[in-house]
Amino acid sequence: MPAEDNLQILLNDTRLPADLKQVAQKVLDGERITFDEGVLLYEKGELAYLGVLANYIREKKHGDVTYFNRNFHIEPTNLCVYDCKFCSYSRLIKQRGEGWEYTMDEMLDMVKKYDNEPVTEVHIVGGVLPQYDVPFYAELFRRIKAHRPNLHVKALTPVEYHYIFKKAKIDYASGMKLMADAGLESMPGGGAEIFHPEIRDQIAKDKCTGEQWLQIHEEWHKLGKRSNATMLYGHIEKYWHRVDHMEQLRQLQDKTGGFQTFIPLKFRNGDNQMSNVPESTVIEDLRNYAIARIYLDNFDHIKAYWAMISRNTAQLSLNFGVDDIDGTLDDTTKIYSMAGAEEQHPAMSTKELVELIKQVGRHPIERDTLYNVITDYKDFEFAEESKPRFYKLPVVN
Ligand code: SF4
Question: Per the record's keyword annotation, is Metal-binding included, yes or no (predicted)?
Fold first, then answer.
């Protein structure tokens, strides 16, 4: 049944409380919902109701299209000067023996391993260490672009940029310009966690504040560049903290239009300092995707990381506002597996991902980082012998 019919049925349901009906009407009319209505959705919106609203918006924006891209990850180090309580991945400098620190040549070798693979993007993010500074990253980006000019460099978050710019005594605007000149093309969405200091100070003390995170993205957008945004949810935050987080993103997006995609990140409690905090349920994960889709009316895309939430939940999420699945990746990220995700060795071939999307009646499209279409897989037939296109490397994200 078309998504609009489902929404009409909902609106005609006399049992639906008036406040929820008002939000549903706003969605039908294409009107923005308020902060209080965002909190209302979290407090009172049942899964089926939220799914109808989110799917209406999703299909209005994208129909059945579901995007994915083919990238690989480089995680320069898992050592970090910070000590975020939710981080299962980082080893503090004092535990150096358990970590890795790749040299520039080692990272370039990782890039070269993909020379004959049809990847379009390298995603670089990891821990924060003093030797990975402005000259190091500028040189790394330059050398990657010199080796493979059409490989899109999506790298580092405001957490790293704030640290390295402060060390280099340069302001955000000059720093981002320098990075763009070196070859940086997009910024991933990490490090956002929860912006509100009431929560951020408890889980991610010392690293850049929410305000600084937003300022760095703003400077990046002013250069005409694009970035993503995330939110780490399902730990000690209240619903209103999530709405506050999305509200700040929505306001910056109104100003710059530079965000492409919002990616809710589920808190996982494996092997970190918050292991006593229970994880959110699958129902809550789906509700959260749906509310993000409803609230962030000025974001084009909502993305799910299948490696973090499992393949089945990723399929379900496509009916709750998600239009982008990340991605075909191999063993090159350890961020999720180290946090207790079911997928300990996340790997999915293009064929498997296309099937995963088609199984739930959606239309798979391979995109590049900026959502240009690379291949439409709607009627695509894979050759029998089609081999998985990724190699396993002893590295991460
Ligand atoms: S979340 Fe990032 S900044 Fe925080 S400890 Fe882990 S690697 Fe470091």
Answer: yes
